[in-house]
Amino acid sequence: MKIIITGATGMVGKGVLLECLDHPHVNQVLSVGRTPLNLKHPKLKELILTDFLNFNSVKGQFEGFDACFLCMGVSSGGMKEEKYNLLTYEYTLAIAKASISENSAMTCTYVSGVGTDSSEQGRSMWARIKGKTENALLNLGFKQAFMFRPGAIIPLRGIKSKTKLYQFMYDYFLWALKLMRKISPNSIVDTTQIGHAMINAVTKGYHQPIITPKDIIQLAQKS
User: Fold this and answer.
1) CA 49 to CA 30: how far, in whole Å?
2) Which tens digit of pLDDT belongs to each residue from 65-114?
3) What does the alpha-carbon distance between residue 112 and residue 71 come to, in Å, rounded to a whole number?
4) Sheet harboring 107-111: ordered strands across?
5) pLDDT in tens, 14-42
6) Are 21 and 29 contacting, i.e. CB atoms less than 8 angstroms apart?
7) Domains of the chain
8) Using an 8 Å Cβ cutoff, are 155 and 11 in contact?
9) What's the whole-model pTM score?
């Protein structure tokens, strides 16, 4: 299986990348991003781009891939709607369209989050734009498309968050997340579970397109 992944320098994306590289059924991973990963692996190739809206000159490199794992995302804190829409919706749709144009039988997974607004009409800017992105991906024509909506996420394998506030919370309050996980085991996931769930979504499918934390846990356990 050959996987395209975006956002591999981020917390979720790196977690997914590491699970893909370790998985025996994944034989190639193409990381598409704006900065190098500083990671070497025989399965890994990198495509570094400065313009995430124009894939015309490189989309031929996407031919033959089985899935795209769209993990690229930014915090909306302090960001204007136009900028957040560019980074979240426009960038994601650009690579999704380039991918499906080369692979009509491809599976797409996209990381949004709990609280995403599928109606695109709510007050929360991030939730509207995430909802718009999900809706567009679901209607793009992928063989399978799954919208992952994790809530709280526990980073494993030494992974750090690029968002300083989030990493501060992990540094000092990870114990609280782990405690909450024991109390409510279906509400909190870790980066390894997200990676396994995405791989299993490609190979085994799932009965619904919206993937909640409970669904992530169930998908990750599929054998």
Assistant:
1) 13
2) 999 999 998 888 889 999 999 999 999 999 999 999 999 899 999 999 99
3) 8
4) 44-48, 28-33, 2-6, 67-70, 107-111, 144-148, 210-211
5) 999 999 999 999 999 999 999 999 899 99
6) yes
7) 2-220 (3.40.50.720)
8) yes
9) 0.94
